[in-house]
Protein: Flagellar P-ring protein
Amino acid sequence: MRRLILWTGLFMLLLGTVRAARLKDLVSVEGVRSNQLVGYGLVVGLKGTGDGDQTKFTVQSVVNMLERFGIRVPRAQVKLKNAAAVMVTAELPPFVKPGQRIDVLVSSIGDAKSLQGGTLLLTPLRGPDGRVYALAQGPVSIGGFGAAGAGARVQVNHPTVGRVPNGAVVERAVPVDLNDKGVIKLSFRETDFTTVARAVEAINDLLHGPYARALDGRTLALTVPRVYRGRVVELLARVGEVEVEPDVPARVVIDERTGTVVMGENVRISRVAIAHGNLSVVIRERPQVVQPQPFAGGRTVVVPRTRIQAREQKARIVVLEEGASIGELVRALNAVGATPRDLIAVLQAIKAAGALQAELVII
Structure:
């Protein structure tokens, strides 16, 4: 009850603080994006926590590496405990230049127990096109540990996954030339025709001309004005500061695992009556021991004694008028004594009755 009352105040507070957002926080520039890199490498220097002999590809990788250094070792004689095969992943940011450094993530793919204290050997990182964009190498930091004994084990975080801060040097950049473009496309992170239309109007007011036009419910095209030819970065910086009030769709999000309910501002409810009541059944088992009288020739037995008690709370009915808001809904549920868990069940029932004019999302 008390939590639901707090929810009512929180909803009213949030509804009263709706503000416009900067356009740069709502969109991304088409062609300006990060790229995923991946590579296969070896982590060495582990203290007996590396891959076992059953991980054949680790053994083969070490043998191949030694051969490139001119050292030939029979594969059958290689016994490894201090090395582990890993997959190395990284994100190549836009506009990054050769010689700059990026972080890499190292993940074990064998049966290694921990990468603590290991060093990643030189690993080429490739893009989807198969070309090498960065070279990774350095000490692995796992940010955790694991310890085990004969009858107990302690583990903090994941010792088979680590990072190499600034561990990769960029060798090839992804070319992006904004200044040569005559039209820039801005893609919104959420699809909404109203938000796109408001953004087009705000940009045209800023530039004093019909330079922006909507392509669909998620994209607008911005024609570069003549005064900004060759200065597209300056144009995007100025346009990005334009304030646009995003239109929020009518949506109710429910997380049944935590009992969390988030409702948008535009959620409306048709005329509906809500009845809420609880039925509880209590079963108590109190077995009794029955003993025969002395010299009676009987035996001691356990006789079950079951007591069943049913309690049903009186249901309370609340009627919501047409077009009720979320504040009125929460106050109505608060009046019938609903808990956050009850609120989830009531919202699902209202949606099933066709009275909830919003999208119901359960995560």
